[in-house]
Amino acid sequence: QVRLVESGGGLVQAGGSLRLSCAASGFILSNKAIDWHRQAPGKQRELVATITSGGVTNYADSMKGRFAISRDNAKNTVYLQMNSLKPEDTAVYYCKVRVLGFDYWGQGTQVTVSS
User: Fold this and answer.
1) Where are the beta strands (DSSP E) in the chain?
2) Using CA atoms, how far apart are residues 67 and 110, in angstroms rounded to an integer?
3) Quick check: 90 and 114 in contact, CB under 8 A?
4) Do 3 and 105 contact (CB within 8 A), yes or no?
5) Strand pairing of 18-25 and 3-7?
6) Which tens digit of pLDDT belongs to each residue from 45-89?
7) Which end of the chain has the lower number of beta carbons within 10 A, N or C?
8) Count of beta carbons in the 10 Å neighbourhood of residue 12
């Protein structure tokens, strides 16, 4: 079955960096676009970045220049490199894939940025 597992979150000081991983199974990763989303306490889930099957990337405006999404199809993994982190980046980060019209989400990984 389709499964996504995020990892790499943690506590970091403002200005620091983290790299999140999204390990995929149950489908052919190379054929699919993958999104990273995040949800902060009391806020709606928002799109962070997308990478298409062809490697084209898109970012939310507030992440441009700080975050980088990439994929390693051989490892069935998508990454989110986050630099220059700010306290407002604190959230649970999720990866998502759409397979046969259904959205599959991972369990999320917590990122906390201290000021």
Assistant:
1) 3-7, 10-13, 18-25, 34-39, 46-51, 57-59, 67-72, 77-82, 91-99, 102-105, 109-114
2) 16
3) no
4) no
5) antiparallel
6) 999 999 999 999 999 999 999 999 999 999 999 999 999 999 999
7) N
8) 17
